[in-house]
Amino acid sequence: MQKIGLFYSFNTKNTSKAAKIITEAFGSENIEANNVEDIADEQFNAYTNYIIGVPTWFDGELPNYWDEFVPAMEEMDFTGKKFALYGAGNQKEYPENFVDAIGIMADLLEALGGTIVGYVPNDGYNFEHSKALRDNVFIGLPLDFEIQPKLVKPRIEKWVEQLKTEFK
Prior knowledge:
The protein has 168 residues and is of the alpha/beta class. The chain has helices at 13-26, 41-44, 64-73, 100-111, 149-166; strands spanning 4-8, 31-35, 49-53, 82-88, 115-117, 120-121, 133-134, 137-138, 141-143. The protein is globular, with a radius of gyration of 14 Å.
C-alpha cells in the first residue's frame, strides 16, 4: 500500500484524537500526518490516497483553515486520487447540519476529479439532516465525541479495516 496522506488541523481536540486512532489502526509506517494549517500545495498534492479530517463548524460550515485552502485546491486535479473523509459533529445540539462539512468537502473533491471512499451506513445516528448523506449512506465517517464517545474508537477501527481494501 502507498503511503496515505492524513490531513487535519493539529490544533483540534477531537479531530486530532481521531487521527491518532486512525494512525494506530493503519500503522504509523503507512500514514504521514500533515497539519492542514501549515500545508503547501505541493505537499497536499503529493499523495494518491488521502484521509481528510474535517469537523463541522457553526451551522454546517468548513473550518476556517480548510476554507482558506480551498482556492489552492481548486487549482489541482485529483483525477485518480482517493479520499476518505471523517469529521466530528454533534447530533443533539446541531441535528439540522450534522457533519455537513464532510459533504461539503466531498462535493469539492469530486468536482476536482477525486474519488470518495469510506462510505458508512447511517445506523446508530440520530439527527435531522446532513449534507454528508447520499442515498441514506454517509460519504465519510461521522464521529460524535459528545453524544456517543464510546462508539468513536470502534467506528474508526471498523472504518480503517474497510479503507485498507478500498485504498488498494
